[in-house]
Amino acid sequence: WQPWQLLVLQGLTGAATGGTIPAIGALLAQYTQPGEEGRVYGLNNSLRAASRAAAPLVGAGIAFGFGFGATFVATGLLFLGVAGLGYLYLPKPDRSD
Q1: Cα–Cα distance for residue pair 37/30, rounded to 1 Å
Q2: Residue 94 phi/psi, 5° resolution?
Q3: Cα distance between residue 61 and residue 23, in whole Å
Q4: Residue 28 and residue 20 in contact, taking contact as beta carbons nearer than 8 Å
Q5: DSSP character for 29?
Q6: 3-31 helix and 70-89 helix, angle to the nearest 10 degrees
Q7: Phi and psi for 83 in degrees, rounded to 5?
Q8: Does the structure show a pLDDT above 80 at 93?
Q9: Cα diameter, the chain
């Protein structure tokens, strides 16, 4: 791996994350029952904080066990897995305009 590759991959990860976080907030707003918004957004923020604490530990474990490049493969697989779960489990939009 070269330093420029790390820069490009970090930029792509930032773009993916920057698009994902507002999308999650929009989905939560759309599917949350009235009166439950505070609880749902609080849970969302708690999970985000926990993931920010756990991600470096998991990344370091992957890098230690499989090498530095494996962290990028694992991150890509994680993004694909989450996209697949969203496709499978999120309600499909009603297109009967």
Answers
A1: 10
A2: -80, 115
A3: 29
A4: no
A5: H
A6: 20
A7: -60, -40
A8: no
A9: 53
Amino acid 83 reads A
In the numeric block, which tokens belong to residue 9? 């991959």
Residues 6+ apart with CB under 8 A from 72: 9
Cα–Cα distance between 65 and 41 in angstroms, integer?
35
Alpha-helix runs per DSSP H in 1-97:
3-31, 37-66, 70-89
**The two three-digit tokens of residue 30, written as one number:** 């759309």
**24 Cβ partners below 8 Å, 6+ apart?**
44
Query: What does the pLDDT look like over 33-86, one tens digit per residue?
Result: 888 989 999 999 999 999 999 999 999 999 999 998 898 899 889 989 988 998
- Label residue 3 exposed, middle or buried (CB < 10 Å: 0-12, 13-18, 19+): exposed
**C-alpha dist (Å) from residue 21 to 27, 35, 42, 63, 70:** 10, 22, 14, 26, 24
